[in-house]
């Protein structure tokens, strides 16, 4: 707040990921704070950073820290001064020097708390989660009576209480017979077996003295107090004495007040509401947790059951009938029907909470578990019994708010449709789409720092791709858009443009900060979803339920019958080629895009791009003849320098002179025209071919060979360089050609970027920058620059049950026919100019993160023209 400019408190300060915001703006924050922070503070910060670096180097994770409570049950308390006064700790003066101080206990460590929560039985867990939910979300007092065998007294407050009964005794859970007997003692309903068990534990006084740590049960409090004083005096263990400090409140003579205080000291505990004058506390033995640890002296007479008209018994009976506690929280696993059941959660470090997930009955009862912000590394072991991991994305270096994982029950069939992430600048968004039966489940994480346009663009991509595979869609995620802020309801309206409705109740809390940033959209009727409760996390989990049984299948032990293929927007199957371009103006929140400081253009979102004014290649500026004796390396080096100068000018918002780019583009085009048609026979020796592919289709592989293009962020441009001159020596020149086309056809690309929710300026920079991946905008620009279609292929589908399945031994003609029918897979075509539509296409292979060139074995190869065009706007 002090060192980073902000304007809106909610959007810029409160509802953000503070750690991620700091990392994004670390340099400017440190620069600003140096102007105000003293040298001593800076030195402290430096020492602290060095300490944290040492911790990071060791990669210490708090899940590895164990607290051995068996060695010292009171380990969490500080040992020191045994005397204290709670009023001093509260800042109140007690006006006496006769004060004994004691140390305030530490807060229980997270690991111990998590272990405690994981050890709860089902009833304890359900009740604890429900109370947690009431505390976080309720605004009324609640009165619960937890019955574990204790009695109650007749009190007017009793009418306010609701009853919840714990039916399982945890302390004696390892000796079930003993546990039942103890419970029956409290209720006065002992069986013959119970009585026999306790009588078997009767010993003589002489024998009892030989038994250490024996539990003694007396008939009166006086006998208990007398014996405890003897035992406490004999214990040589850690302990503390707590003395009560009594004082009078109100007006009155000092002599009377002193007399009252003296009299109070002589009262019995039965007359002081059970409050003793002094408590002697020492570490001693635990209760008997098994019958073998119990010893009785004398005869055992079982208690009688309560009389029919007993007041306490009647009160319990009426309470069980009229005021049993009804949970405000719904537990989906308690449904008697078998159904489709998904759990989504922003887990905020799965490595830290993996044991919480593994022990949570609600999560384990689900069909699918989708977790985001996992903070995981590839080396983390994240398996959950009964589930298979079908999608996982980890942090590459250090743990940070990043990562996603999806679990599916072992016997369920699935298909990975697409997954993608963007982590650049302040924009951070991740998603995956997985098809189960006839439903696509899209899981999303969107950073609070991402722009709304970036979120819309990615939502358009993943929903469009997913609808190419099935109509039933679920979109669930942590969107970091607080729906409690009315202006953010525009996101709900935007999702309606895809036919998706909000499936969670509006204005419900999804976080401990009482914001609603996690929710679910769907177009499926009868789908229910609501928030669950977390004992350890800031975010609430979301459960999603459908009343249908999923299709199950069994894996062959020797052969996987299903292949999971990762798609990207560039590999999508679009049923209607115009779908990607149809945007309803009603849901377009921004109708204007700034062209320069003085001019704006208003674009109808249903425009026809054919009507835009575009400079044809023949209209390009004439340039002087250049000598083509320079080799490819020199020309490519010059292209890189020109692009660097161009980027520098853009950085300072200068109006750049593009003549140099246009001139260099002409030189490159002339070189390409003089280059022969490139095949595997005349490629450069530096270009290597892949010896085998993930799934080989002989008819296709007999025509094209896949190269091993360098994976350095320039792979798209390097692949086009190979296809045009036989080597990667014109990689930067391919970038320059794309930049030149985007500059000379600015209106067209501004309109294209607007529809795809890309800022035009950002895309222009990405095209010019070294090692920055290329996408659909850049491929379209390259198609225009090279005056050829570009075909982008993905791995063929190997699942016989899929309509796009291609057999590895399919005939040549049948494969051509399948491409013509649009049932050969999600391969895409990019056609810059309509006049180039019938030209031979440049072929590339895309695996979801990397492009390789596809070189033909001979001249005039058989074309396999993809059916689908993601950008259906040739000029």
TrEMBL record:
Instruction: Identify the residues that the record assigns to the OTU domain, covering every copy.
Output: 704-857
Q: Name one GO molecular function term.
A: catalytic activity
Supply the name of the protein. Answer: OTU domain-containing protein
Q: PROSITE patterns annotated for this entry?
A: OTU (PS50802)
Give the classification, highest ranks: Eukaryota, Metazoa, Spiralia, Gnathifera, Rotifera
The species this protein was found in: Rotaria sordida
Record Pfam families: Exo_endo_phos_2, OTU
Family matches, as SUPFAM superfamilies = Cysteine proteinases (SSF54001), DNase I-like (SSF56219)
């Amino acid at each position: 707040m002090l060192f980073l400019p902000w304007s809106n408190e909610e959007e810029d300060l409160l509802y953000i990921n503070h750690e991620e915001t700091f990392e994004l703006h670390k340099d400017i924050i440190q620069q600003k704070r140096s102007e105000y922070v003293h040298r001593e503070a800076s030195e402290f910060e430096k020492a602290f950073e060095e300490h944290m670096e040492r911790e990071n180097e060791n990669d210490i994770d708090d899940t590895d820290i164990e607290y051995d409570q068996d060695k010292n049950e009171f380990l969490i308390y500080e040992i020191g001064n045994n005397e204290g006064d709670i009023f001093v700790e509260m800042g109140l003066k007690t006006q006496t020097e006769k004060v004994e101080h004691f140390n305030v206990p530490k807060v229980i460590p997270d690991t111990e708390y998590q272990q405690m929560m994981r050890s709860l039985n089902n009833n304890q867990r359900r009740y604890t989660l429900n109370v947690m939910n009431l505390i976080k979300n309720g605004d009324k007092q609640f009165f619960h009576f937890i019955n574990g065998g204790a009695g109650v007294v007749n009190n007017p407050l009793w009418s306010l209480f609701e009853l919840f009964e714990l039916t399982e005794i945890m302390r004696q859970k390892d000796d079930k017979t003993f546990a039942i007997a103890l419970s029956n003692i409290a209720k006065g309903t002992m069986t013959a077996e119970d009585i026999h068990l306790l009588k078997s534990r009767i010993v003589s006084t002489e024998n009892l003295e030989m038994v250490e740590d024996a539990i003694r049960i007396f008939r009166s409090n006086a006998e208990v107090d007398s014996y405890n004083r003897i035992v406490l005096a004999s214990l040589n263990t850690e302990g503390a004495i707590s003395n009560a400090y009594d004082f009078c409140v109100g007006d009155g003579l000092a002599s009377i007040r002193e007399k009252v205080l003296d009299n109070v000291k002589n009262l019995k505990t039965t007359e002081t509401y059970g409050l003793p004058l002094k408590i002697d506390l020492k570490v001693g033995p635990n209760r008997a947790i098994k019958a073998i640890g119990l010893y009785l002296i004398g005869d055992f007479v079982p208690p009688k059951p309560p009389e029919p008209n007993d007041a306490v018994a009647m009160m319990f009976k009426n309470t069980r009938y009229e005021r049993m506690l009804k949970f405000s929280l719904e537990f989906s696993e308690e449904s008697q029907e078998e159904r489709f059941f998904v759990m989504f959660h922003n887990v905020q470090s799965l490595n830290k909470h993996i044991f919480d997930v593994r022990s949570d009955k609600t999560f384990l009862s689900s069909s699918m578990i989708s977790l985001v912000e996992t903070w995981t590394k590839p080396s983390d072991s994240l398996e959950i019994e009964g589930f298979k991991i079908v999608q996982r994305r980890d942090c590459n270096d250090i743990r940070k708010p990043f990562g996603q994982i999806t679990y599916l029950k072992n016997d369920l069939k699935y298909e990975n449709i697409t997954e993608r992430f963007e982590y650049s600048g302040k924009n951070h968004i991740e998603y995956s789409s997985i098809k189960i039966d006839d439903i696509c489940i899209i899981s999303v994480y969107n950073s609070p720092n991402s722009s709304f346009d970036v979120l819309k663009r990615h939502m358009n991509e993943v929903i469009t791709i997913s609808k190419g595979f099935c109509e039933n869609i679920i979109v669930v995620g942590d969107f970091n858009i607080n729906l409690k802020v009315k202006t953010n309801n525009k996101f709900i309206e935007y999702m309606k443009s895809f036919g998706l409705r909000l499936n969670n109740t509006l204005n419900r809390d999804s976080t401990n900060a009482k914001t609603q940033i996690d929710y679910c959209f769907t177009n499926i009727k009868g789908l229910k979803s609501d928030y669950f409760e977390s004992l350890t996390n800031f975010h609430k989990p979301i459960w999603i339920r459908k009343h249908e049984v999923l299709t199950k299948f069994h894996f062959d032990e020797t052969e996987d019958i299903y292949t999971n293929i990762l798609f990207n927007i560039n590999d999508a199957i679009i049923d209607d080629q115009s779908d990607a371009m149809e945007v309803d103006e009603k849901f377009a929140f921004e109708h204007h895009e700034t062209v320069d400081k003085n001019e704006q253009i208003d674009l109808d979102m249903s425009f026809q791009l054919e009507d835009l004014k575009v400079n044809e290649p023949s209209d390009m500026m004439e340039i002087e003849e250049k000598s083509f004796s320079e080799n490819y390396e020199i020309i490519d080096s010059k292209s890189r320098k020109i692009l660097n100068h161009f980027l520098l000018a853009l950085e300072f918002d200068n109006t750049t002179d593009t003549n140099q780019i246009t001139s260099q583009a002409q030189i490159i085009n002339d070189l390409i025209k003089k280059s022969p048609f490139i095949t595997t026979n005349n490629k450069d020796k530096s270009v290597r071919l892949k010896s085998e592919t993930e799934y080989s289709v002989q008819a296709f592989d007999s025509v094209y060979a896949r190269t091993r293009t360098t994976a350095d962020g320039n792979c798209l441009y390097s692949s086009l360089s190979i296809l045009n001159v036989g080597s990667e020596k014109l990689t930067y020149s391919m970038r320059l050609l794309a930049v030149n086309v985007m500059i000379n056809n600015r209106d067209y690309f501004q309109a294209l970027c607007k529809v795809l929710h890309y800022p035009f300026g950002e895309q222009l920079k990405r095209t010019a920058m070294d090692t920055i991946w290329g996408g659909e905008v850049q491929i379209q620009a390259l198609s225009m620059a090279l005056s050829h279609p570009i075909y982008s292929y993905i791995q063929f589908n190997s699942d016989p049950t899929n309509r796009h399945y291609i057999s590895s031994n399919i005939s040549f003609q049948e494969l051509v026919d399948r491409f013509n029918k649009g049932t050969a897979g999600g391969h895409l075509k990019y056609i810059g100019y309509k006049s180039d539509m019938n030209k031979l296409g440049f072929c590339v292979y895309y695996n979801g993160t990397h492009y390789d060139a596809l070189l033909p074995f001979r001249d005039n190869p058989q074309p396999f023209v993809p059916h689908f065009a993601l950008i259906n706007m040739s000029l």
